Amino acid sequence: MAQAPAFWNNPPDAPGWQARLLSPLGWITAAATARRVAKPAQVRPAMPVICVGNLTAGGAGKTPTVMALVDRIAARGLRPVVLSRGYGGSLQGPVRVDERTHKSDEVGDEPLLLSAVAPVWVARDRAEGARAIEAAGEVDVLVLDDGFQNPAIAKDLSIVVVDAGVGFGNGRCLPAGPLREPVQAGLKRADLVIAIGPAEAQADFMVRRDLPVPCIGAELTPLPTGMEWEGTRVLAFAGIGRPEKFFDTLRVLGADVVQAVPLSDHQALPPQLVARLKADARRLGAQLVTTEKDAIRLNAEDRRDVLALPVRLSFADPAPLDAALDRVLSA
Q: What class of enzyme is it (predicted)?
């Protein structure tokens, strides 16, 4: 998707004239989502189903959250599998992602990235995807990626991820604001909220929001890469929900971000664009750097010239999450 309009991040008590003008369309979005989520589930898998989703459009940290869940499930001796819609990919599915042969334009960048840590299936029809996974066997837990507003599969645990820095924006539904559905309506179906961001942002979000479900804080932490970032001149580009978060992470590591290029979420990286980025980096004497998700969309040749900065989720207090997992996985 394109970068979000600035008024989406206005405070709820001052949403802006654009939000007020578009509010009738937001009411239609809210009503449509309410009708959709009220539909009965088409399939109830024999294995536990853990759903990771959000209430807003765009990135909030779902992919790192899915990675963290996969790690915690595997640590319990269980075999997780991820089911994704495959946003940005051409394959309808159900198909199991093969990181050796599939490309991001076939299965989507996030499924391809996740396939390095767990089996991943993509399916436009989530119910058909769940049936295919059960038929294939050899897994114990289904992690549903970005399926919170999709009622096709019965869920045992629903986790809502939120960007602590922007919260739920101006509190309006699309296109008047960033919400896929009203906050209170969505949280009635949630079991846990994970607020992702720096510690101050987590604390501020939790103070400002009176949430009806438990909320825990988490932060995206860069993994060691062997790269000495301090003082390194970089040209950074990112096609994620909030590219500035990636640029800020590089600055915190000490990198000299001489140019930052924000792209639309999931934006394609054609040869012409990459060639321009390479030329700008040479002119500035800078190293090209991007996110793991963006690097997945580069071809093999271009990937050799671009450094990817991997990040993983670290929890301030994972006890509520572990308790929820124990309850579901030991049932």
A: transferase
Q: Specify the pLDDT at position 239.
A: 86
Q: What span, in angstroms and rounded, lies between the C-alpha atoms of 281 and 258?
A: 9
Which residues contribute to the annotated binding site?
Answer: 56-63
CA distance linking residue 32 with residue 37, whole number of Å: 9
Question: What are the DSSP calls for 195-229, one per residue?
Answer: EES-HHHHHHHHHH---SS-EEEEEEEEPP-S---
Residue 331 pLDDT: 64
DSSP state of 56: B
Interatomic CA distance for residues 245 and 313, integer angstroms: 14
Task: Specify the DSSP class assigned to residue 152.
Answer: S
Residue 66, C-beta contacts closer than 8 angstroms, at least 6 positions apart:
52, 82, 114, 143, 145
Query: How far apart (Å, rounded) are the C-alpha atoms in residues 329 and 249?
Result: 34
Is 79:139 a contact under the CB 8 Å cutoff? yes
> Binding site for ATP: what residues are annotated?
56-63
Structure tokens at 57: 């459009």
* pLDDT beneath 70: ranges in the chain: 1-3, 331
